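User: NAD-dependent succinate-semialdehyde dehydrogenase. Structure?
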Amino acid sequence: MFQSINPATGAKGERFAELDDVGIERALATAETAWRDWRVSPLDRRTALLDALADRFDANKRELAEIATREMGKTLKSAIAEVEKCVAGFRHFAENGPSFLEEETVPVPKGSATGRWLPIGPVLAIMPWNFPYWQVVRFMAPAIMAGNVGLLKHASITQGVAAAIEDMARQAGAPEGVFQNLAIRSDKVAGVIADDRVAAVTLTGSEGAGSKVAEAAGKALKKVVLELGGSDPFIVMPSADIEEAAKQAVTARVQNTGQSCICGKRMIVHADIHDAFMEKFAAGMKAVKAGDPMDEATDMGPLSSFDQRDTVLDQVDRAKQAGATLLFGAEKVGEAGAFLSAGILTDVPRDSDIAREELFGPVAMVFKVSDIDEAITLANDIPYGLGSSVWTTDDGERERFERDIAAGMTAVNQMLASAPQAPFGGVKKSGHGRELGPWGMHEFMNLKTVLAAE
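Assistant: Predicted structure:
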């Protein structure tokens, strides 16, 4: 059984049954049967389902948000915003999906060649707890539009969210098997990937989980998309709007209690404006209020679990042992709950392990650099390459950052965020492949070449 635990109180919540081998077999058989029909379904039937899903999410957004808040601790207002983003995601693929599937014909020496986008089958999605609705929808919406069907293996701590998403699909009129919640633990994943009825795999999660899933998919010769960890640089140069950069840096670091793969985690600040930036950034971080995530006045909820809180505390301790200075914060808050106060680490040795790790909590590392070359070198001196945020009004600097930062995404003079329209993904140990937009839909489609004689 899966046990839900409220990280804000430590109280036990609902319990959810795990699928046994018989249940897994039934789900896979149902998915295969559903795909045989859905793969040839008219496009207007697919768009109608996406619009109906958007309607159901919108009509139930508060109830859905409350489940996420109870299970993983994000503030209710941010959970509602996440559900609203899901609505936008469904609408985007309903409106634009047909154009993503348009054929393209080019001349060849003996006639023409047409590229056709065709679905490939059931897609297994292994999704994390940090954005428990949005992470699912950004695979689910394009998969349905493409003519594929979805199998969701959600995180163990967000099984209530997983069940709610499946219920929304049922209420929206999804045919049986087009979307199923596969309530299994990680030790069952390799067997599901190996099953011939599963066509491909997408995972959002840790580097370790990505390695195991990639190995299983490789053995089965199946397509896999991996969106893994990140320790994103947030670079501030002298020409930037310092006040706005500092304000956005606070939001970037503490949104979702710092548990976002594309949070700005390493603040890399030019020496000329370092002190001015730090004054504003530190004041903003100190003002962050951690507390009851159901309270509208709360800025930041608890960590997703007590284990996650302790992991962050251990990382902070190791940073201090390596010679870093904890300016403030990173302290337990209250008598109950997995709360931490927002904090800042400085003087982190650049050759230390912690400088190259992902800190998945509300603690920032701040580094001072002398020029753009040092900023780029430091930004790239990690195993990850997911996102980045750069703050400059100098066109030459902007070009350098866009070209030379080894990351899948760079935001200029804004905090990095995902959008249904834009490709999302990373390089190096942050994974490979892309989600969202036509790029994400095409990851799990067969681009078939059709040759026609003159």
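The mean pLDDT is 97. The chain has two domains: 2-228+430-453, 232-420.
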